[in-house]
């Protein structure tokens, strides 16, 4: 007579294994972005080369992100990576260097660290996507340009002019005014004062605030979440920066929203776009 045996269900191990694999996949997805920057010195940057004809083909390399999970770095890390690759961070006090970096960043609408002394500790030089040089906080995640190390040029460099002749009177300049009605504030009007052509007029913080007041508006503040959302709507889609009003951690610094929508404190005397809004009733 045949003896019957009770067989343990065989599907549980498979189910357990599938659950484990799913958990690992989700964990890997959640860590995917952070892993890219765990070691910025070994990250596979997209290196875009430019041979500067003004320096007999001197090599400049933009260290760009390589895919959506890109690795951007603070100033010190960028400088260290250049040194590790036996290069130097392109400086801001050399007109030929500035021209080369401008060639690399403006066509791609990105920003880049620049080496050189600044007006005060805690600030570093950064070239904007429009090719202007600013001083701002050194701990931001930014692209950078390294160049081949060489003897300095015999002729002294001539610093570039940051403001064009169109800015002789910023109060009468014909800005390109881009309006946005904020639905979170019942259609409150926000206006981005943008450049109007290649000889655009960009302004320091005080001038921007004064222009808003002249038009019976106020510079959009950074301590109001609805204001931040409206300014972010205007600047991120256009990959530009904008001044923001509000108290800062120390004198000489002002709030600025980056093209990615982050708020930074940096020097107030830079040429930047700005957003005014209707004053509250």
TrEMBL record:
Q: Organism's domain of life?
A: Eukaryota
Check the UniProt entry and state the signal peptide residues, or none. 1-36
| Keyword presence, Signal | yes
- Protein name, as recorded: C-type lectin domain-containing protein
Instruction: Please name the SUPFAM superfamilies in this protein's record.
Output: C-type lectin-like
Q: Which InterPro entries match?
A: CTDL_fold
**Keywords linked to the UniProt accession:** Signal
Q: Which organism is it from?
A: Volvox africanus
